[in-house]
Fold this sequence. Notes:
CATH superfamily: Metallo-dependent phosphatases
CATH architecture: 4-Layer Sandwich
Number of helices: 9
Number of domains: 1
Strand content: 15-25%
Amino acid sequence: MKRKSLFRTILLLLASLILVASLLFLGVYLGLTQTKTYEDVSRHTEVFALPLEPFDLEDAVERGKAFTIEYPSDGEFTILWGTDFHLRRGSSGGRTKVYALLKKAFDETDPDLTIITGDLLFSFNGAQLLKEFALFMEDHQRYWAFAFGNHDGHYRQNRVTLGNMLSEYPHALFSRGETWVLGESDYPIALTHQGEAVQALMMLDSHDHRIYEDGKGPDYIYPSQIAWYGWVAQGLGEVPLYSFFHIPLPEYALLWESGQATGVMNDRFVNTPWENSGLFQTMVVGGTTVATFCGHDHLNDFHGVWEGIALYTGRSASYGSYGSINHAKGIKTLTLTKNNPTKFVVRTYTVDEWGI
């Protein structure tokens, strides 16, 4: 009897511990995943009103919806382009390696601007790590711009909260964009010479995922964003545009499948939206978009020209998410010139090359 009683007591204790652990896990899980990352509308149901007045750069800058940077005296503008840092806590997060890579890149390339095409964060407390990164850039006095990726804004803080934080940091060139545009990082940065725009860098929020008829897949650029892109392009006239976003457009997959791309595809596929919402065709018709730059696929690094526009995938620097020992982490530079606004040079640097 005593053995049965002891056995029953142990079972009850174990059951109680399992119940308590389950409740704790559920509480933590719900607390960490409270953010809404899927949009409530589709490309078929979104409603918006395009402004009647044309886009005006000076007005947009005054309203905090755009930025300008004056060209250096040597006529070259260097962008340090990073993607998929996936900053997170813990010994396996690799944040110190990401910062070491950036320090080395600052020393070697002395960029005029750093652009991150999404998934800067991959953390239960994104706000804490965003602050850490912003302070790192302030300490090094480096200007930077940022387009949200699918993992930014997960867990405890959403993209609105994170975006609002960046106004505190002078070197963060970030805007949540026009209120009529769906997204939290849609804004232009004009590179100027004597106050006149030479080129414009178009930052775009490519959102997270959405539910399609056949399941869950990467989200797309929405109609209001496409209208905004055309509105800004028309307002800037013949100024060449260079576009930055996280999730590759469907045309990236078409480029790779055509056999015309240069580089590698070590991911299983090019992970694009399952529906084409039409941004790329707007770029083609507009005629002023020179190139686009994306992230998202950590093991892909290829480029090519599709319908007259150059498409580039980034070099992932993610230590906090998936990767491969056969695909070195790294970063890229994009060099633009004042005297030839449609000319650009992209170079890749890896941790192997720099011995990091």
